RNA sequence: GCCCUUCUAGCUCAGUGGUCGAGCGACGGUUUUGUAAACCGCUGAUCAGAGUUCGAUUCUCUGGAAGGGCUCCA
């Protein structure tokens, strides 16, 4: 048996354990609050949940000890799970006061599924099965984690239920390990680190989802911007600037308006015009392209921009720098002959791999690709042109296959104007998020009547490739903060060196050295505070500054600097020249 | 947007129906230091508004903001 299968079996057993624990949770809840209506309780990625309708009763985390105690009490009597097949009438009768279960029963019997009840101890639930064999022995190491609101069947139109999350492991070690890993993840949370390291802040008066970058945060952003702009220029992109504000008509022409209306800010009426903060850059670049005729010799035209955009995200969706209402996308639109599209997409993926490599992320491990496809039957969601969709999806698939990129396919995730490749990055909590995307667009050229002059003098229609190279800079910063746990590599660190004069008489020398380092492009700070050296070392270490340079009597006399790293390594005294070349090496190797 | 929780000083956190307390920080001073916290002093806050009350930071309501969730189907 290979390892993969083995892993699957272990996962299945774990899921059974977790689902069984959901039963146990429900049993305890029903004992404590008998009027509760139970709904569903599946195993999930890291545990399980059960959704309840508690009626008028409020149940929160403070009730956990009580529930957990009841669970422990009940589990002793659970010797197994007894399966019983029932008719629809019997099932309905059993759950006569529970409209949720009745809805499920109706649905399952309509689908022709067998209806089964599972009993353990005195608790019986509608369930299709998948349990552990000896609950009384196996269900020991569980923990209730949180309470959350969740809509019945996931729809906003339905009633909000109370969801209790929990987890369970076969061993005490497994549970402890999981909980301590959760704690670790919390420490790396970019919102927490952003505050501790002084990178960004919010203001109630400015508004939700609108972060301000401090000098340090702005430094990281500036470095990222310079990095990506330089790299894009090397790769044949032309950087442009277009307005972040435009007439609504522009988005009506592009067709974005009906699809994005919900997330756009409402229009502003000025003079005779309706203006809107742009939620995307594409049509702006198209207008720029259209400002003059283009020969086939100029193609592909690759317009890039650090484009600030505005989207009215639901207030509950906002989160630190990860999800904001104004963001700057490293955006670009490649306008090319259809026959060259594939080559261009391969080049885009190469740029993305280059960027991810620079960020210390490994393909297939830290990130992978998602081929997001359209659905030919959803004519409302997607532009209707089956042949064009088939072709575009095939092109993207070929690119992924030929470059041997790790990818999976996701139906019904495309943009309305074409399929796309999303770069899925795993965040610190282990969840995947879309960081960058590459989209194949055969719709906009039609809508905007984009053309080029072909070798035979005729006007032809190009295709557009939309792509984001480092994505939204805000979100990328959030990723990087968590990825590095705030200890940025030297090239990204907002402060690369803190100079520490031991006593006041060493400050002048330190300042001179700081100027020298600054002139050579190093981001350096001098800690002139009236504090013992130990305190200054501590502060710089807590701020995760990569290098500390200590200057005392000895250094002043010998014209050297004693270097220490944030990891506590003592690199001993060296000349400023040697320190500089050490720094430059660290920056080049993106350490 | 919706459900639950939270909002006390720049930060982390106490506490209370009757003039809110600490540590760190900031500031002033003393000290002039050799690889993760010197000493003394001082400054500084109840998210906003309304209501109940003799009196509200505490209770109620409205608003703002933050956090956990709202995909993982009996």
Task: Kindly describe this structure.
- This protein is α+β, with helices and mostly antiparallel strands and 591 residues long.
- It folds into 3 domains: 3-184, Threonyl-tRNA Synthetase, Chain A, domain 2, CATH 3.30.980; 196-245 and 277-483, Bira Bifunctional Protein, Domain 2 (BirA Bifunctional Protein, domain 2), CATH 3.30.930.10; 497-588, Rossmann fold, CATH 3.40.50.800.
- It has 19 helices and 28 strands.
- A hairpin with an 8-residue loop joins strand 7 (141-151) and strand 8.
- The protein starts with a helix and ends with a helix.
- It binds one RNA strand of 74 nucleotides through strand 2, helix 4, strand 5, strand 7 and strand 8.
Key words describing this protein structure:
eight-stranded mixed beta sheet; five-stranded antiparallel beta sheet; RNA-binding; 591 residues; Rossmann fold; Threonyl-tRNA Synthetase, Chain A, domain 2
Secondary structure elements and pairings:
Elements lengths: L2 H30 L4 E2 L4 E2 L2 E7 L10 H12 L6 E5 L1 H7 L4 H12 L4 E6 L2 E4 L8 H4 L2 E11 L8 E10 L2 H17 L1 H7 L3 E2 L10 E2 L1 H20 L3 E2 L5 E3 H7 L1 H5 L7 E3 L2 E5 L4 H9 L10 E10 L15 E11 L4 H18 L8 E6 L13 H17 L4 E4 L9 E7 L5 E10 L2 H4 L4 E2 L5 E2 L2 E10 H11 L13 E5 L5 H13 L4 E3 L6 H10 L4 E5 L1 H6 L1 E6 L4 E6 H13 L3
Parallel strand pairs: 11-15, 17-18, 24-25, 24-26
Antiparallel strand pairs: 1-3, 2-3, 3-8, 4-5, 5-6, 7-8, 9-10, 12-14, 13-14, 15-16, 16-23, 17-19, 19-20, 20-23, 21-22, 26-27, 27-28
The protein binds one RNA strand of 74 nucleotides through strand 2, helix 4, strand 5, strand 7 and strand 8.
């Amino acid at each position: 048996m290979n390892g993969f299968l083995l892993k699957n079996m272990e996962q299945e057993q774990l899921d059974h354990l977790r689902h069984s624990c959901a039963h146990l949770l429900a049993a305890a809840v029903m004992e404590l609050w008998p009027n509760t209506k139970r709904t569903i309780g599946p195993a999930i990625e890291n545990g399980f949940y059960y959704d309840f309708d508690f009626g008028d009763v409020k149940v929160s985390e403070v009730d956990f000890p009580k529930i957990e105690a009841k669970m422990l009490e009940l589990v002793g009597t659970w010797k197994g799970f007894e399966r019983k097949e029932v008719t629809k009438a019997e099932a309905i009768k059993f759950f006569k006061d529970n409209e949720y279960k009745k809805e499920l029963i109706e649905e399952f019997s309509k689908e022709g599924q067998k209806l089964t009840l599972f009993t353990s101890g005195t608790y019986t639930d509608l369930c299709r099965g998948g349990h552990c064999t000896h609950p009384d022995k196996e269900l020991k190491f569980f923990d209730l984690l949180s309470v959350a609101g969740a809509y019945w069947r996931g729809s906003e139109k339905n009633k909000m239920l109370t969801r209790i999350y929990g987890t369970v492991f076969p061993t005490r070690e497994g549970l402890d390990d999981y909980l301590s890993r959760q704690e670790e993840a919390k420490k790396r949370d970019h919102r927490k680190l952003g505050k501790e390291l002084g990178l960004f802040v919010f203001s109630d008066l400015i508004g939700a989802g609108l972060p301000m970058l401090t000098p340090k945060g702005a430094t990281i952003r500036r470095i990222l911007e310079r990095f990506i702009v330089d790299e894009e220029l090397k790769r044949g992109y032309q950087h442009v600037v277009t307005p972040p504000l435009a007439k609504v008509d522009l988005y009506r022409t592009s067709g974005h308006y009906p699809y994005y209306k919900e997330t756009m800010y409402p229009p502003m009426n000025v003079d005779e015009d309706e203006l809107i903060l742009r939620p995307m850059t594409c049509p702006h670049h198209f207008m720029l392209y259209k400002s003059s005729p283009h020969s086939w010799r100029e193609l592909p035209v690759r317009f890039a921009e650090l484009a600030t955009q505005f989207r009215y995200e639901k207030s509950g969706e906002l989160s630190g720098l990860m999800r904001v209402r104004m963001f700057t996308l490293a955006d670009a639109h490649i306008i090319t002959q259809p026959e060259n599209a594939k080559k261009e997409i391969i080049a885009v993926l190469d740029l993305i791999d280059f960027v991810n490599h620079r960020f210390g992320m490994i393909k297939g491990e830290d990130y992978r690709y998602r081929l997001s496809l359209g659905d030919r039957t959803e004519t409302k969601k997607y532009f209707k042109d089956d042949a064009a969709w088939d072709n575009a999806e095939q092109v993207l698939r070929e690119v992924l296959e030929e470059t041997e990129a790790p990818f999976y396919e996701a139906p019904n995730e495309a943009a309305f104007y074409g399929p796309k490749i999303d770069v899925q990055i795993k965040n610190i909590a282990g969840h995947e998020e879309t960081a960058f995307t590459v989209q194949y667009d055969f719709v906009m050229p039609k809508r905007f009547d984009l053309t080029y002059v072909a070798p035979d003098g005729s006007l032809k229609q190009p295709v557009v490739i939309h792509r984001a190279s480092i994505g939204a800079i805000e979100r990328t910063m959030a990723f990087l903060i968590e990825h590095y746990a705030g200890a940025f590599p030297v090239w990204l660190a907002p402060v690369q060196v803190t100079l520490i004069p031991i006593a006041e008489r060493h400050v002048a020398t330190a300042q001179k050295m700081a100027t020298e380092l600054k002139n050579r492009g190093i981001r350096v700070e001098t800690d002139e505070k009236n504090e013992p050296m130990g305190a200054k070392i501590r502060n710089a270490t807590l701020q995760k500054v990569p290098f500390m340079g200590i200057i005392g009597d000895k250094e002043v006399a010998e014209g050297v600097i004693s270097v220490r790293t944030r990891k506590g390594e003592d690199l001993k005294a060296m000349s400023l020249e040697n320190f500089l070349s050490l720094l430059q090496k660290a920056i080049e190797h993106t350490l």
